[in-house]
Amino acid sequence: MAPRVRTTDLKKMKERGEKIVMLTAYDYPFAKILDEAGVDVLLIGDSVGMVFSGYENTLPVTVEEMIYHTRAVVRGRKRALIVTDMPFMSYQGSIEEARRNAGRILKEGGSDAVKLEGGAPMAETIQSLVSIGIPVMGHVGLTPQSIHQMGGYKVQGKNRSQRERLLGDAKAVEEAGAFALVLEGIPADLATQVTKSISIPTIGIGAGVHCEGQVLVIHDLAGLLGDFQPTFVKRYCDGRALISKAVQEYVQEVRGGKFPTERHSYS
User: Fold this and answer.
1) pTM attached to this predicted model
2) Terminal-residue alpha carbon distance, the chain
3) Looking at residue 2, what is its pLDDT?
4) Domain 7-236 adopts which CATH fold?
5) Domain definitions of the chain by residue range
6) 147 touches 57 (CB < 8 A)
7) Does the pLDDT value for residue 226 go beyond 80?
8) Among this protein's residues, is 184 annotated catalytic?
9) Mean pLDDT of the chain
10) Which of 24, 71, 143, 242 could form a disulfide with 117 if both were Cys (CB 3.0 to 4.6 A apart)?
11) Within 13 Å and on the Cβ side, how many CA atoms surround 142?
12) Are 141 and 184 in contact (CB under 8 A)?
């Protein structure tokens, strides 16, 4: 069996020029499939609120929900590093609250690390978590927990002041001790600049080709949510159509008396 991926391995992958593969997972079967396929990092994203629970955005997600889904994913992995999002207002209120909730995610959920959104304003929180042995992945650019402030899901870093702020955010997250940084929804040239300016690996989602890794939501990759497809998403299969076809066939066979047969019955 391949050795377990650790937080320290990601920086080594950056140094070797190896791409980091990251996908979201929210349950046992998907975690098992993705892990066996060779994904390096499984992210229990707060996107679970939208793609699993049907919320309009990520804001309603709770720590308890994240712990529940993390437990399920942990049971399905053998190799991948597991990172769990800290949900909205589980870390912004105070450093003490951030420590308590991050600790719960590792202790009760079994995660290897947490991810939190925000740059320079979150540096002290990141540093505090790292100082007590909790690995942190950063996240700057388009930060979904700030959609109301941003006016929706809009590309960030398109003007000079935003670019300077994002560069500062990336360096602040690095200096605070984060082991990696997600760059979401920023111009490709800015992502390249950030990637070259910091020593920790960058993982892009809608941030161009030059990040050291890439992450997608598994439901987007597998086409499970219908026709909605952001620009940065490549749909690798039409999972919704495949499942729908199978279910329609099942409906027809049950109603037509073709399922179950004697082969599917006990004697």
Assistant:
1) 0.97
2) 40
3) 85
4) TIM Barrel (3.20.20)
5) 7-236, 239-267
6) yes
7) no
8) yes
9) 96
10) 143
11) 18
12) yes
